[in-house]
Amino acid sequence: MKWGKHELLRQPGKPKNNVQKLMAGVSLRQVSKHLGGELVLREISLDVGVGECVVLVGRNGSGKSTLLRILAGFLLPDGGSVCQTVKGEKMYALDGLPRLPFTSAEYLWEMGRIRGVRPTLLRQRIHELSELFFLGTAMDQKLPLLSKGTLQKVNLIQAMLPGPGGLILLDEPLSGLDIPAQQAVVSLLQQWKQEGTSIVTACHEPLFIERMADQVYVLQKGRVLRQWSRSDLKELGEPVIRIHSLMTGSDTELSDTYSKLAEQKGVLDIYRHRESNNGSEEFWDWKVKRSRSDHIIGMILAAGGSIVSVLQEESQIHMERLLKGHHPSEHPGERVAPSTRPHSQSEVAGGGFS
Ligand SMILES: Nc1ncnc2c1ncn2[C@@H]1O[C@H](COP(=O)(O)OP(=O)(O)OP(=O)(O)O)[C@@H](O)[C@H]1O
């Protein structure tokens, strides 16, 4: 389902595209914050343009939630300045939605009213968002009884009631959500971004980062370790498809096939899993560029292999390395020569899935 078929959340007169990206939508300069006697944010400077998405990544305790709370105005910085010229509402879905004794529907209604959304519009928005996030009967359940993922959906919906424009702050928005709900959130946020909504979010989902981020700030112990831009993410190249194939033949034949196919354009990695020491069957896990996947599947079949499964789109961001400060497109490992080993071990060409 594509949000906006009713055009309700589109602000009249606002262009859908070509939103001017002002570097001064939100600016933090040298912001520091102590909590419990500890310096948890150290001289953070950050700019969010209008219609830009900034993603904060970092290990637990690196300061992401504290930074979001400062942007939301829940915490005041001890040092530095926060300047916001973004027009429109400031919306937030931060961690820890209180489990108040309301049903989801009651809670969303009250939150919308507090935010000043007119009743007719509010009713429409609650209806559309609850459908989009597949809330179903959970609308009539009390918040304390909701599952973690469902509570997260309610949290996101309450943040989105004012509609696009302004600034939205999201702490791990996809956490606990099922795949359809994750996809719904990402496509809605993509649409909101195009309509000029500035987004700041702590998120560790590589595909979210790849699709949404204009800037990525890597936090480490309260500092900005690295900052990456959209152009850095563009170096990631196109999305990746995983193919699982069954290959048959003698050791020599399989090695020949491997040598031939591993060099094909668009092949990024191949893991070889031998079924048994004596047998002539191997499972190969492939990582290939999407644009070459049909061609490579054809080559596998032509080599006498069969396709066990094809999985869609994997992000090329290596999160662990990103958190350590490496460039988003940098991958570990080099291609190694193929060899055959027992089933318990696997071979890898060109690094690994990790
Ligand atoms: N109210 C508080 N009092 C004292 N220390 C706090 C408080 N809130 C957070 N901290 C500390 O501040 C540091 C940063 O916490 P924060 O929640 O911002 O990190 P985070 O990057 O969001 O972590 P996580 O990924 O686990 O959510 C941590 O060391 C945390 O223990």
Automatic annotation (TrEMBL):
Residues 325-334 have a biased composition (Basic and acidic residues). It comes from Paenibacillus xylanilyticus. Keywords: ATP-binding, Nucleotide-binding, Transport. Residues 26-246 form the ABC transporter domain. PANTHER family: ABC TRANSPORTER ATP-BINDING PROTEIN ALBC-RELATED. It holds the Pfam family ABC_tran. The keyword Transport applies. InterPro entries: AAA+_ATPase (IPR003593), ABC_transporter-like_ATP-bd (IPR003439), ABC_Transporter_VariousFunc (IPR051782), P-loop_NTPase (IPR027417). This is ABC transporter ATP-binding protein.
